[in-house]
Structures are given as C-alpha cells and as structure tokens.
Amino acid sequence: MKIKSFLAIVLLVTLSFSNANAQINLGEKALGALQNGVASFTFSNEDAAKLSKAAVYKMDSTNVVAGPKDGYTLRLNRIFGKHANESGLVLNYKVYLTKDINAFATADGSVRVFSGLMDIMDDNQLLAVIGHEIGHVANEDTKDAMKAAYRKAAVIGLASSQSDKITKLTDSQLGQIGNAILDSRYSRKQESEADAFSYEFLKRNKYDVNAEQAAFEILANQSGATSADFLTQMMSSHPDPKERAEIAKSRAVADGLYKVYVPKTISNKVVTVKTTTKKKVVKKKK
Question: Rounded to two decimals, what is the model's pTM?
Fold first, then answer.
C-alpha cells in the first residue's frame, strides 16, 4: 500500500505516510464545489472540510479498508463508536489494513486508523492516539494545514500568480495539492495542544489517563524500527516522544491520577460466541 506523509503528529501517531504509500488524485467531480472564487487567504472551515472529504474518499478507494465484519472494524466500533460526536464534531472512522503504524484525522471529521497501530496498542492507548488526532480537528489545525497546501500550490504555480484566488482546478492540479497536504507538518505548539486535548479526552470519558504516556513510550520504541522510519523523520522538527511521555505523566501526577500503566490484552480477532441449545425433554405420559 502506498501512502505518503500526512499531517504529522509527532509520535503519538503521525499522519505521515512514507513515499512508498498511496498517492492522492482528487477528482474534479468530488470537488466541484471548490472551483471559481475560493480564496486561499479566506479559506473557511467549510472549504477545508470539502477538500478533506474528497481526499479521504479517494484514499478509501485506493487502500484496503477493513470490512464491517472484520475484527479490526469490530474492535474500533467497540472502543470508539460511542465517541463519533466527540466535542461537537461529526466523526466517521475506518481501518486501513496495512502493517504501517499510523493514524490520521482530517478537517471533515474523517478518522483513519491503520491496523499496524492496532496491533501494538491496547484499547486505552489507541484511544489516546485517536484523541490526539481529534484534537487537531477540534483545534482547527487540519484547516490550517489545508490552507497551507493551497498557498504552497500557488507558490509552485498551480494557481495564478496574479490572483489570491484559485480558479477551476484540473484533476492533476488537485492531485498536486493533495500531495502538498500530505507533506505538511504541525507546529510544536499545535502538537502540544493536541496532546493536552488527548489527555482531557481520556480524563473526561473516565479512561486511564496513563495510557497516553504508555502510547508515547511505545512509539518511542518503534522509532528505531524499519517500519517506523517516519517517526525518525519527525524527530528533527518535533519534541522527543520520551519528553512527551514525561509531560503526559506530569499531568496525571498533578491530577492525582498517576499510576504505572499495565497494558491490557490486544485482540483484533472476531470473537465468536458459541451458543448451545438445550434439547427439550418430553416426559412420557403414564
């Protein structure tokens, strides 16, 4: 599966996709609303949501999405389905079947979790990562990333240099804008705020807040692995995951909630419940 780096989150799951992964070509039909008169400097939340929705729609069609009865989907439904309207957002979610250790959320409320991440994190740790991603949406970081992609596209000549507005875009141009989005990065401030959002998300919903520290520590260990080269790439512009783990721990300590986190069992298999039918005993008439 081919996916490039997307909206990186500093090790709590990075929206980064390696150059080996899915390219996005956003179709004109899907983005018909984003034609004449869309100004990059007055880019609204609605504009960001429309473009994000089209991008994710294309990604869903080019990647292997876990089916409704797949164990990964059932697990994500179980632990995250109840939060589909978290913080007033309207969220939709799916699992990409790939060994990559990633997850991302976009301005339209799409949340995509990679099965490789679900293989190494228990329910609470996974929720810490998803909470971080939701934080980027709630804080409008995803809108800013989309706006930056438009500006970048204008610089490289996709839009007229004589205007702040993007005229009707071709399918190829939309694909280049999509790639510009995939190459974007969040600032340290945005990452720290998303970390804080994740902690409050866990606390508000009565999950073990220590799972956030545990999730960072897992990603820190993964940063040396071949499958997590993207994590190493992030190190140059974002805080060390161990540092962020310590910050997460300090929050828990301050709230009197700190305790050593004990990882739970991880299972992405379909659980089948065997039912036994009792045979009716017919009494013979005397």
Answer: 0.76
